[in-house]
Design brief:
Length: 402
């Protein structure tokens, strides 16, 4: 019989390694009504069905944030900046707003010739790493996607360090549950982002250049999208945050899993033509985005349960990607896995907007990193994972040349 104890994501052991908890949920109660009254979905087929179905809408994270803001409204704290920052986050939108915003961004962001620029930024960071010992996450995996997206968007390099630090905090908007203290911090982060991009958008409106932000401003006018300034600001926050944190975690966690399997690290160094396949497997094996939220638009059966209209669902992508009914030996890191239809980048209309950029960055980063470091070893350390249930990543990873 299923119990509430099946879903204990804040257990310290489950923050470090959630996959045993996922396995138990898949086996004992794959459509699980948790103690917080949301349905936790862990099987691949169920997760994929919900992602592609029109009977579910996005938004329970936004709804819960709004409820949290309303609940704490009497605490003499104004949380308006959170709403200002996330009003156009594609993850939270539904048609027709989602269709409009996604079309606006994809039609504007049509220049994918970024390989040389990515390689240049990666090489800049690699040249500064000390083979005797460095922090792979803080000195490499986190900075390089920030440099890349900053250059694409037209953000001055001198500003990227400040934005990198607040982008990590912005990821809290995707998490499951929020305390009053966390909402206060998220509101401060949102205010920094809103004020920064408000100034930058006005600057580029007056002095346009070839950056993505300038193109968004021009496209909004020339194609009559009629988006307000607040929507442009939120889109910029989303593009910067999503591009930075997901790629940073894919790279950092991916390299960690390769270093933990030195024979696989050596294989990939010897046969770099398999890096594209390896990137897909690293995404599947330890997904940077672990959870997504949906809300049932109608009463609908799922598995052996019936989901009532209006119910909140938590889709566990990290569990779906370890489902043995979909993947042979799912707990094994198989760099040549084929087919590999993982859902690490979601599916359906909310499929990751920047999947192409994330994949290119990961491939180039792995290739150049392994060229410089044919082998690495982990230094003695206690690993610290981000305490964010939705976005999985290491806070730090000390390594040295083997």
């Amino acid at each position: 019989m299923a119990t509430q104890r099946l879903w204990t994501p804040y257990n310290p052991g489950h923050v470090i390694d959630p996959y045993k908890m996922y396995k138990r949920l898949r086996e004992e109660d794959p459509v699980h009504l948790s103690q917080t009254n949301e349905w936790v979905i862990t099987r691949y087929t169920d997760v994929k069905f919900v992602l592609k179905s029109q009977e579910f809408r996005s938004g329970n994270r936004l709804d819960w944030l709004s409820k949290g803001v309303q609940y704490f409204k009497n605490q003499d704290e104004d949380f308006q900046h959170i709403s200002s920052a996330i009003n156009s986050f594609l993850l939270f939108l539904n048609p027709p707003d989602h269709t409009k915003i996604r079309s606006f961004v994809t039609k504007t962001w049509n220049d994918h010739n970024v390989e040389a620029m990515i390689a240049d930024n990666v090489n800049q960071l690699l040249s500064k790493l000390n083979p005797k010992g460095f922090d792979l996450v803080k000195e490499f995996a986190q900075p390089f996607p920030v440099l890349v997206i900053s250059e694409i968007m037209g953000i001055p390099k001198e500003d990227y360090l400040q934005l990198k630090s607040v982008a990590v905090n912005m990821q809290r908007s995707l998490d499951l549950y929020h305390t009053y203290k966390e909402l206060v911090e998220l509101n401060k982060t949102s205010k920094i982002f809103v004020e920064y991009f408000k100034k930058l958008i006005r600057l580029k409106s007056e002095r346009p250049d070839n950056s993505l932000i300038s193109k968004l401003i021009l496209s909004n006018v020339s194609h009559n999208y009629n988006l307000e300034e607040k929507h442009l600001i939120s889109i910029c926050i989303f593009l910067f945050t999503a591009s930075e944190e997901t790629t940073a975690n894919t790279t950092g966690t991916g390299l960690y899993n390769l270093i933990c399997n030195p024979e696989k690290y050596a294989y990939l160094y010897t046969y770099p033509e398999h890096i594209p396949s390896a990137v897909e497997e690293l995404l599947r094996f330890d997904s940077p985005v672990q959870l997504l939220g949906r809300i049932a638009k109608t009463t609908i059966p799922l598995g052996d349960k019936v989901i009532p209209e209006g119910a909140a669902l938590t889709l566990v992508l990290g569990s779906a990607n370890r489902d043995p009914l979909q993947f042979n030996s799912p707990d094994e890191l198989d760099l040549l896995r084929s087919p590999n239809h993982h859902v690490a980048l979601s599916s359906g209309i909310h499929y990751c907007l920047g999947d192409w950029l994330g994949r290119i960055q990961a491939k180039i980063a792995l290739q150049l990193f392994m060229d410089k470091f044919p082998s690495l070893k982990l230094d003695d350390q206690k690993l610290s994972w981000n305490k964010n249930l939705a976005v999985r990543g290491l806070q730090s990873l000390l390594v040295s040349a083997a």
